[in-house]
């Protein structure tokens, strides 16, 4: 039985904003705009707590965006698990990479009207401690059960008096004769198909978005690989409070991170969008042997139970929001490989920038809003391109399927082992704290030249001609992996 207050939205008025989807991004857009005095309708097909294996580890850049929006307390009282950095394990050897010092990054911005009454600071609870998040010297990320986090975001939104929540399936984006967007048609249980009007319609319908194509029929993602996931219970992770990336020359990347005091997520990459016919056998033959010793008891138990979940890994570079009355945002606009755990961070920072640009404007002035949205596309590039390109480059290296990529994978690990700036900058990119694509390019090619140097060292004087040839091949491979994505992100 649906809560009656979720289906009685008024369709006789024109809302300032209509938000399609209450996943991670929709509630943040709705809350932010409501706090700016806008009248907002948010439509979600199912307000019940979702059960998904996506969006479970938030990088510090995402945590900071939640602070800017005055929504950081969404990580409270859900048994969220602090994340203090990453551990990369390569053929059994490991490197610890802690998140950056707060002193090395810009202070968090507080958005006017959004941040008030301490809502940019965490509360004390069983697992999240004020001392660590507010007074600790390093940036922190956080991991959680996705559905619990979403419930918190949605509850914050529900408290805003300018927000009306509606449960229903958006089936059409409405347009006028000039092809400008004027709202959405919603299929509501017990009410049927109802038209709702708004000055600005925000499409936040996520990874499987139906409405991203309103920007262009060509705005479709590519899917190159998948993740197969399991829940591990009472797992002993190699380094507590770290995300783990397990790499090796004989297997695909494996991600492991604790999402609550009891539960740990494992995601195993499979290099095709089509899953293996028999996942259990594939896991037993291609993953099990590479799981660190401390995780084996919980892994073996989960494998025996065989409760697998899977998700496609999609890539979609952003497109300019060039349709009057429409703003596509979140995964509907832009996706990257989930290996870097950057999706929520990009989306939340997009919301921060969006509010800065249009939060104080009158939404009925649709042409002025459109101008700002056109400009917004370019302003967000420095931030999202780093996270997107990094995720693709890392996946290509970590899922190496030829010798040059395998050399780069090893070179990358050896580069991290050098410590100092060789981990400081990469982790700043990963954490969403260094929006500088040119610096990313410099660091990527530093890894490439270090890999080539290792080749020369390994081959010795007599092997010089071989090393030279291999070096050229490595460089060409690296250019092929990196540059098309970088250019696509920066120029597109
Ligand atoms: C395997 C995997 C793992 C990931 N892990 C991480 C991670 O660890 N960290 C991270 O930061 N990111 C991660 N991501 C990415 C992250 O999940 C997304 O970036 C994030 O969820 C995007 O939020 P969103 O609001 O755009 O979309 P979503 O969170 O997908 O929300 C979309 C919402 O729209 C609703 N909806 C859809 N269509 C309609 C309709 N027609 N009418 C009404 N409602 C509708 C849906 O019900 C849903 O609630 C991962 C992605 C994948 C694939």
Kindly, what is the distance between the CA atoms of the first and last residues, rounded to a whole number of angstroms?
46 Å
Approximate helicity band: 25-40%
Mean pLDDT: 96
CATH-assigned fold name of the largest domain: FAD/NAD(P)-binding domain
Structural category is: alpha/beta
Q: Identify the CATH class of the largest domain.
A: Alpha Beta
Bound chemical compounds:
flavin-adenine dinucleotide
Q: Tell me about the biggest sheet?
A: 7 strands, mixed
Unreliable spans are: none
| Estimated radius of gyration | 23 Å
Describe the structure.
With about 500 residues, the chain is α/β, with parallel strands linked by helices. It folds into three domains: about 5-85 and about 105-220 and about 315-380, FAD/NAD(P)-binding domain; about 220-315, Alpha-Beta Plaits (2-Layer Sandwich); about 385-490, no CATH class. Helices cover about 35% and strands about 20% of the residues. The chain contains 13 helices and 17 strands. The strands form three sheets. Strands 1, 2, 8, 9, 10, 11 and 17 form a seven-stranded mixed β-sheet that branches. Strand 14 and strand 15 form a beta hairpin. It is globular. The relative contact order is 0.14. Bound molecules: flavin-adenine dinucleotide.
Sequence-ordered SSE layout with sheet pairings:
Layout: E1 14-20, H1 25-35, E2 40-44, E3 57-58, H2 60-68, E4 81-83, E5 85-90, E6 93-98, H3 130-135, E7 141-143, H4 146-158, E8 163-167, E9 169-175, E10 181-188, E11 192-203, E12 222-233, E13 242-248, E14 251-258, E15 263-270, H5 279-286, H6 296-305, E16 309-315, E17 326-328, H7 343-358, H8 366-379, H9 381-398, H10 403-417, H11 421-430, H12 437-459, H13 464-491
Parallel strand pairs: 1-2, 1-11, 2-8, 5-13, 11-17
Antiparallel strand pairs: 3-7, 4-7, 5-6, 9-10, 10-11, 12-15, 12-16, 13-14, 14-15
Bound molecules: flavin-adenine dinucleotide.
Residues 20-26, 43-46, 54-58, 62, 169-170, 204-207, 210, 227, 311, 313, 330-332, 338, 341-345, 347 line the site of flavin-adenine dinucleotide.
């Amino acid at each position: 039985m649906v809560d009656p207050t979720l289906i009685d939205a008024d369709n006789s008025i024109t809302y300032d904003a209509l938000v399609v989807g209450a996943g991670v991004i929709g509630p943040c857009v709705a809350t932010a705009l409501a706090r700016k005095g806008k009248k907002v309708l948010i439509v979600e097909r199912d307000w019940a707590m979702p059960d998904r294996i996506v969006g479970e580890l938030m990088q510090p850049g995402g945590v900071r965006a939640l602070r800017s929006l005055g929504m950081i307390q969404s990580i409270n009282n859900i048994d969220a698990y602090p994340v203090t950095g990453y551990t990369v394990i390569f053929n059994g050897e490991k490197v610890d990479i802690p998140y950056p010092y707060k002193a090395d990054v810009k202070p968090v911005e507080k958005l006017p009207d959004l941040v008030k009454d301490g809502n940019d600071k965490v509360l004390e609870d069983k697992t999240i401690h004020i001392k660590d998040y507010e007074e600790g010297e390093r940036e922190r990320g956080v991991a959680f059960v996705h559905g619990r986090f979403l419930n918190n975001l949605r509850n914050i939104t529900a408290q805003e008096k300018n927000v009306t929540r509606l449960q229903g399936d958006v089936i059409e984006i409405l347009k006028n004769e000039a092809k400008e967007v004027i709202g959405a048609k919603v299929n509501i249980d017990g009410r049927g198909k109802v038209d709702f009007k708004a000055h600005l319609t925000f499409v936040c319908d996520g990874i499987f978005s139906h409405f991203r194509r309103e920007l262009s029929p060509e705005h479709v993602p590519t899917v190159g690989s998948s993740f197969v996931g399991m829940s591990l219970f009472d797992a002993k992770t190699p380094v507590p409070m770290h995300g783990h990336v397990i790499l090796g020359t004989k297997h695909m990347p494996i991600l492991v991170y604790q999402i609550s005091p009891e539960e740990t997520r494992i995601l195993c990459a499979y290099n095709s969008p089509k899953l293996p016919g028999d996942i259990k056998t594939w896991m037993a033959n291609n993953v099990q042997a590479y799981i660190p010793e401390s995780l084996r008891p919980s892994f073996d138990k989960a494998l025996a139970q065989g409760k697998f979940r899977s998700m496609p890994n999609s890539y979609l570079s952003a497109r300019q929001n060039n349709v009057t009355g429409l703003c596509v945002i979140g995964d509907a606009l832009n996706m990257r490989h989930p290996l870097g755990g950057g999706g929520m961070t990009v989306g939340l920072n997009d919301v921060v920038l969006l509010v800065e640009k249009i939060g104080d404007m009158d939404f009925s002035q649709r042409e002025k809003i459109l101008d700002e949205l056109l400009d917004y596309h370019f302003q967000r590039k420095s931030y999202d391109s780093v996270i997107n390109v990094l995720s693709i480059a890392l996946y290509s290296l970590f899922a190496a399927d030829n010798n040059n990529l395998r050399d780069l994978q090893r070179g990358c690990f050896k580069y991290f082992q050098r410590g100092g700036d060789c981990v400081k900058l990469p982790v700043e990119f990963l954490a969403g704290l260094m929006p500088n694509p040119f610096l990313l390019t410099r660091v990527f090619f530093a890894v490439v030249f270090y890999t080539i140097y290792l080749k020369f060292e390994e081959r010795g004087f007599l092997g010089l001609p071989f090393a030279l040839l291999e070096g050229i091949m490595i460089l060409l491979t690296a250019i092929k992996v990196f540059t098309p994505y970088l250019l696509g992100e920066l120029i597109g």
